Amino acid sequence: MTDTVEALIAARETRKWLTGLDSRPADEAEAYAIQDAVARRLGPVTAWKVGAATPEAVPFRAPINAATVFEGTDHLPANLFQVIGVEAEIAYRFGRDLPAREQPYTRDEVLDAVASVHPAWEIVDTRFTGFGSQDRLSHMADQFNHGALIVGPAIADWRALDPLTESVTLEVDGEIKVETVGGNSAGDPVRLLVWMANVGARSFGGLHAGEVVTTGSCTGTVFVQPGSRSVARYGTMGTLTLKVD
């Protein structure tokens, strides 16, 4: 595992992208162990990404470091990324700790720990020579393709939000790429938050006050070129813009 961690760190530092891992993870537990080891090398973990393939599927996650979390900006330099895949998401910021414990947290306990909800961008990227070029466990080990998280302003009444009926339109340079309602493949994002509190964040001691959990794409991934301007228009959560150049 150590060689794999070193290879992923070196790819970030040198921008010499990997054609594959010499030792691919044997299972999800090993892929998560690699994720965690890389994250601890990269600095403080201040956010998480979580998603699921279907409303019934077991969720998956990746820790996100402070260096790739941006608050309220509408611009990022393109040289931060190899590829630029934009996703409009819904993110939850926690106001108090949910430390790892034996007794599972309930849905109400997790919601009571939420301080605010935000529209957000995730930019997906890769440390491999091609996006999607590797097996699932290799991409899981590589922070599940995380590039950056851009957290928008908190919405006024987050408890009134119904993510399953929230519409999102994604435009790139004035062209509509996606129009959707409740477009997250995982369904209810609160299910993902509960899983994070009880399972996903255990290796880091649970969830902590101030951390942001982004709950998967509402729009799918739209790959854009440097210099492009993306706009996400939410039904009730406002509008986010992002230029990467």
TrEMBL record:
Domain of life: Bacteria
Any one GO molecular-function label of the UniProt entry: 2-oxopent-4-enoate hydratase activity
Transferase found in the keyword field: no
Gene Ontology CC annotations of this record: cytoplasm
Keyword entries, A-Z: Lyase, Plasmid
EC nos: 4.2.1.80
Keyword hit for Lyase: yes
Classification via SUPFAM superfamilies: FAH
Domain Fumarylacetoacetase-like C-terminal span(s) in chain numbering: 72-244
Listed name of the protein: 2-keto-4-pentenoate hydratase
Origin species: Azospirillum lipoferum (strain 4B)
High-level lineage: Bacteria, Pseudomonadati, Pseudomonadota, Alphaproteobacteria, Rhodospirillales
